[in-house]
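[job 4471] stage=fold_predict status=RUNNING
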Amino acid sequence: MKPAQIKRVRDVFTQHYDRATTTISIQSLRTALRSLALCPSEEDFLSLIQVHDPGSLGSFSFDAFLALVRDQYNVEIQRQNVMLADATTLDAFVALGGNRNRTGVVSAERLKSVIQHELMLPIRIDKLIKEVDKDGSGYIDYEEFRAMMGD
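[job 4471] inference complete, writing structure tokens
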């Protein structure tokens, strides 16, 4: 994290911590995370608590809170990357003839032509198509296309 981000985390911690113990309680944790624009799912929230409060003390020092925030930022970044990758895959599927609602198919011949002649990528596209087009129809649906793209 950058120094400005750490300062922001410290400021939020200071707003929500118990001055007597200099820790933030589990009860204040979700509110503090929301102040940082982090809204973990219930499952992620419980996982964060398990990882960062292994002794079940029910409170977090600044260092533990900072580590917890870093972990949640990483989770958020991974989710954004997955969403971006899915959007990119969908855009490619649509550009090749599929539908935005993930229906329709892409012609294997069209895909080969684009890869080999338009993009001139050194990909063994015939092998990839054969692996995903299990029924040998010569058409690739969205799930097959995703599998081929490695999503």
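[job 4471] summary: The first helix runs from residue 3 to 16.
[job 4471] exit 0
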